[in-house]
Amino acid sequence: MIDDIVDGFAFGGDYNPEQWTEDVWIEDMKLMNRAGVNLVSLGIFSWAKLEPEEGRYDFTWLDRVMNLLTEYNIKADLATATAAQPNWMSVKYPQVMAVDEKGLRYTWGSRQAYCPNSLIYRRGAAAMTRMLAEHYAAHPALAMWHVNNEYACHVQRCYCDTCAAEFRVWLEKRYGDLDGVNETWGTAFWSQNYSDWAEVMPPRYTSAFRNPNQQLDYDRFMSDSILSLFIAERNILHQVTPNLKVTTNFMPLFKHLDYWKWAEEIDIISWDSYPDPHDPLSPVMNAFDHDLMRSLGAGKPFMLMEQAAGRVNWRPVNGMKHEGLMRFHSFQALSHGADAVMYFQWRQSRRGSEQFHSAMLPHAGEGSRTFSEITRLGAELKALSALAGSRIESQVGLFFDYDSWWASEMETAVTAAYPYVEEPLHWYRSLRERNVPVDMVSPKTDFSSYKVLIMPRMFVIDALPASRLESWVENGGVLLLGPMSAWLDGTGAVHPGGAPGPLRTLAGVRVEDVDPLPPGTSFSVDFGDGRPLAARNWREEIYAEGAEVLAVYADGPLNGGPAVTSHTRGRGQTRYVSFRPGPEAMDRILDPVLERAGVTGLLETPPGVYAARRIGVDGRSRLFLLREGEGRSDVRLPVEGFTDAVDGRQVGQVLSLGSWDARVLNEPD
Ligand code: GAL
């Protein structure tokens, strides 16, 4: 809930007043008031201006901005300004700059080029955070803290000597001694044995495949190193302003940080969403990300911290957002549980790297289409204030796992043509088409309340979560296990006997071999009615060990062999799907699972229309209806008595939605 930050939904954006003269600030305030802005993210890239030389801090300009915000009744999501170190630091202490895998040191002149383990950077960031926290602790405009910005967006991995030394410390903590490292990394292979800690390195540029376990550990180590930067700043902020929430903004489908681990440290989850208007898959990916973000925050409302009011400027081709699309994206966020609609940035820059990136107030000014859309949206959000804090209820959990992502996409993987995220997204898409709400889960999640769990490509799984799953199934849960699951244990070693490792008895199947296919190849499966249904990407040679066979391969080298199985255990069931189903095969798999578990969609809607429900703190529920794409669709509501949540008017039982339309309805009691 963000009611301790602003009343109702938060609405605003990154505010970079240092790009403008002070007379423009006054105009900003007035226009922000007109648009209904109640929160701005301030000072994200202001380090150089706040500490113009080492140890000399100058907050006078920021004081004036904070005072103006107070005067105009706008709150600040104040940044710690540590997202880009000042040039003087990079020049004076070159070791602050990150180094790539080939040993090339980054240069200043852009942003975020610091090494996450640099003590100089850490010292400077901590000092800046403390100075800001102490200076603004009692300021009436201060509502929350924004640490850094999109950690690891540009520099995901640093390979410098400092990181190498820290990596050794991290490994020693994890494995105790070098023997532990040698064993876990399997260094007996290819003569990679380490006899001295000094020989242990980050997985730098080398002759052929780098050791996969070394890489997996480096992924974990880097995620932890960068997380410790966040924690260091957060601890200072919690100490000085214990009542304020601290966030840092996450990114869409971002591989390089283990967001589950990060989320445990963050007071309120926030993220930046930039769906590509040219990509027909972007609405479903955006929906997936929203659900992931809500789930990372254990179901609590999250913040859409950044979106674009129009074009971005960092794709090869940056499509515009036609009228209505930005509103659609905003309502999409709300429909998945967001309590904030924020943008990059408030006023469009005249100079600098993002001068062609859109903003709430574009170059064309206050008379523009964009600004009028922003103003109308601000008014709608205000009218919907009562929805803030409301939650989503889901009965289906979908596993999403960073270890599995990293480990199954190594350079040594069995296919490069089947990216990890395609698999969870594939299942998600089908659930979404049925308007079945979904939470993402991790092996650590308490999944006891879910009726269905889907495990797509859970490549890495340990015995412990596997035994928790066993009891959950025994108690009536229906588990859907997807292809490429349970190959490795948490140390990165293949499970004895192969996949699906510790889930073998539960699933009642054994995987003998797999058949990765080139992109575009398809094959067919038969669900027992002699009607072959399409499948693609991947198939597995599996053998039933107690499971019933529900479908078989209908052609190719596995012809006649099991393709889908079902195994009952206690009151529950595990289904194993050994390939990537096409749409019809997906229906044959998913529908019986949902039916058996008693899970139904929220509403039947025409294609392209999606429904979501938020349940308020007062128990009242609101139905969201979103229409993706051009054209008109009629949606039949289950009963009469719905009213529009924005203007309170009665709506008929058949609701007509236009292109990229979004409506929020109060459900009848
Ligand atoms: C985000 C970033 C912002 C801005 C924006 C432009 O990734 O956090 O600072 O660069 O992209 O789309």
Query: What is the β-strand count?
Result: 26
Average the pLDDT over all residues and give the rounded result. Answer: 97
**β content, as a range?**
15-25%
* Largest sheet descriptor: 11 strands, mixed
Number of domains: 3
Question: What structural class do helix, strand and pairing data support?
Answer: alpha/beta
CATH class of the largest domain: Alpha Beta
Count of helical regions: 17
CATH-derived architecture of the largest domain: Alpha-Beta Barrel
Rg calc = 26 Å
Which ligands occur here? beta-D-galactopyranose
**Oligomeric state of the chains?**
single chain
So what's the overall shape?
Answer: globular
- Give the N-to-C terminal Cα separation: 24 Å
Low-confidence stretches: none
Question: Superfamily at the CATH H level of the largest domain?
Answer: Glycosidases
Helix content: 25-40%
Q: The CATH topology of the largest domain, please?
A: TIM Barrel
Overview features:
TIM Barrel, nine-stranded parallel β-sheet, alpha/beta, Rossmann fold, 26 strands, 20% strand, 669 residues, eleven-stranded mixed β-sheet, binds beta-D-galactopyranose, Immunoglobulin-like
